[in-house]
Amino acid sequence: MQIVVTDTVEGFSGNEWNRLFPGELEDHAYLRASERAGLDGIEWLYLGVRVNGQLRAAATAFVTRYNLDTTLEGRLRAVASTLARAAPALLRPRMLALGSPVSERCLLGFAPDCGQAERSHLLGALLEAADAQAQRRGARLLALKDLPHPSASASESLLARAGLRWQPGLATASLALPYADLDGYLASLGRATRKDLRRKLRTRSQLRIEWRGSLAGIGAQVMALYQQTLARAPMRLETLTEAWFSGVLAAMPGRAFCVCYWRGEHLVAFNLVLHDGQCLLDKYIGMDYSCARELNLYFLSWLENVRHAIAHGLRVYQSGQGLPDEKQRLGCTLEANRLWYRHRNGLIDRTMGAAERLFGLHEDVPANTAAARIPA
Q: pTM (2 decimals)?
């Protein structure tokens, strides 16, 4: 068994990497483009396990500073913020996490013919490699970001034995699309929701919608809209750049699109999406909040993505995290994610565990937990 650790996904060939992540939209090309964009505060890392030269397991990882109060609410968050001002290093430690700041879920890949026993053995090797890298890079927290639950339950038992604990993350929303057209989708919804969406669709006539494969000539406008939406986000690990958006579009021709919403000559919204033959993945949206409510931009973007997916024979629209109540109203199912972690200082780790039990931090994420997506 050989452990491979590299700062670039190009340490693995595209074919061998993608073989471990079949059907994954955020594939080798996407990861390479994200890495090349050089996002501030993010150190990229990739782990692999080879057996007799063949790649049998792999994982994306990254190192960053993590605000421990990110998942806290109410009085507990206020207390944590006070402590952070007094001792910022304590509540903003360096963290090494399996997963990616620009991916929807934790990417753990295994060879297609791996049985459960081998998977557990390989995952153990990846965790040991991650822990060694955390020590080497001065990371105090070891984590797995957005690991699906309960589909990863076998992995979770191993993580618990390794001393990691979990906190609930934001659920991933997915919409099945067994419909012939947009009218079929609308007919599947409740009467009040259907009526509301049809009313919102009336503003569609004021806009021109364009599906583009590059940001040529519109990069500054796209980034201005992204910054408006980013400013409203309650939490984030990364800040994207124009180079990131342009790089992903260039690296994934025919699979990555910037959907633009024009009011005359004014770009009022954009949506970066990925898709293949099965799924449309909604990645990032930006909008002009001075007219977002008037034009129903969020809902028009939602309906345009559903329309496009159905027209191209896609079976699933994955709309990401945040706004669980609203997305359930729009027909989505929610799939839970968890953040698994431990502090590498035993005393601090035990203190964090005690705080979790005291404040009930294992409770489900509140239904109204939201990202900054719908204009307020």
A: 0.89
